[in-house]
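Lab notebook, bench 4. Continuing the backlog of folding jobs that were queued last week. Each job is logged with the same field layout so the records can be merged later without manual cleanup. Today's entry covers Protein arginine methyltransferase NDUFAF7, a 88-residue chain. Filled in by technician R.K.

JOB TYPE: sequence-to-structure
TARGET: Protein arginine methyltransferase NDUFAF7
LENGTH: 88
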Amino acid sequence: GFCDHKLHDVLIAPGTADLTADVDFSYLRRMAQGKVASLGPIKQHTFLKNMGIDVRLKRLQGGSYQRNARQSKPFASVVAGFSELAWQ
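JOB STATUS: finished
OUTPUT FIELD FOLLOWS
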């Protein structure tokens, strides 16, 4: 992943780095042509909502974490990240 435009181990501090992937979409298109149906691109927030990101946040806000965790900086970071990704 990347953090502050530098390579960063995403397991050192989860949630603090951007995950990236180098995908050869031309290759995928050639390999899939005539074999799959494409539904076209969708926006990131639509994909995340379809995958249940809002349900996951509600579970995190609920009883699965201690009450003081909801006041912590890491939890606030999760909520801010959710807002940035899912409500654009």
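OBSERVATION: The first helix runs from residue 25 to 32.
SIGNED: R.K.
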